[in-house]
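TL;DR need structure tokens for one chain.
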Amino acid sequence: MNEEIWLTIGSEFSDLPDLSTITRITVRLMIAALLGGILGYERERKKRSAGIRTHMLVAVGAALFVIGPLQSGMPIEDMSRVLQGVVQGIGFLGAGAIMVRAKQREVEGLTTAASIWATAAIGVIAGLGLEATAILSAGIVLIILGVIPVIMPKTFEADPPPAGQSDDR
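>> reply
TL;DR here they are.
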């Protein structure tokens, strides 16, 4: 009976059958976590609502949603349904980062929501084993988040108030 228990336990952990598979999964998850953390650091440094931990969790979670089906033998053709679910779910998470301030007529958090969405995509790419593409993508997202605001600062003001109303900003 003890032998049967140990055989069952061993078969439950058979998704990581050898050192090569363990290394592959570890690298994919660590790349996703690292890249998510870098993107989250940029958001946290700017005191935005979603920071390092959120971005790391999004990237690792997205990678897991790809790694799991791949490990279980799901055909790559069927992966589109998994990816659709990830994209939709991340959309809801991103929506939580968006705030509308009616009095000031401002919308806040769109860039953070977009960075969460991009981080999920980078996590998916890392989970698929396309680490170089994930690193390149994270670099491009960092340029968008960090460099673009410096070279193209906001030069426009919010829409003026409707005629007959004062602007008490």
